[in-house]
Amino acid sequence: MPISGVVITCRPSEKAGVLRSLAAIPAVEVFGDDEQGNIVAVLETGSSEDMEKLIDRISKNPCVLQVGLTYLNTEDEAERMAQGEPVAKPFGFRRPLA
Predict the structure, then answer these.
(1) Lower Cβ count inside 10 Å, N or C end of the chain?
(2) Contact predicate 47/77, CB 8 Å
């Protein structure tokens, strides 16, 4: 189960709307924000592919300027790969989303 820490940046005037949209996503837990429009959140998904899709979904919000990945743990997927179990699309091993 991949877990990541991200800093989501938006315009300060649009922060309340971005926080509302993040609150509607069960895989997102917001831990804090500041007056400059930075939002600190933890994302937890079932697979690396789902993590990339979630980050892409957040990035496509027109009020979001950037999603900065600050921490990523995919240890369970790495262990499965080391044991020879196929992992469909490990984080970062696919074409970028359009």
Answers:
(1) C
(2) yes
Amino acid residing at 25: I
CA separation, residue 79 to residues 1, 29, 39, 40, 92 (Å): 11, 26, 31, 28, 17
Q: State which amino acid sits at residue 71.
A: Y
Output the CA torsion 12→18→20→25 (10° steps).
Answer: -150
Measured distance CA(72)–CA(4) in Å, rounded: 4
Under-50 pLDDT residues of the chain = none
Other C-beta atoms within 10 Å of 92: how many? 10
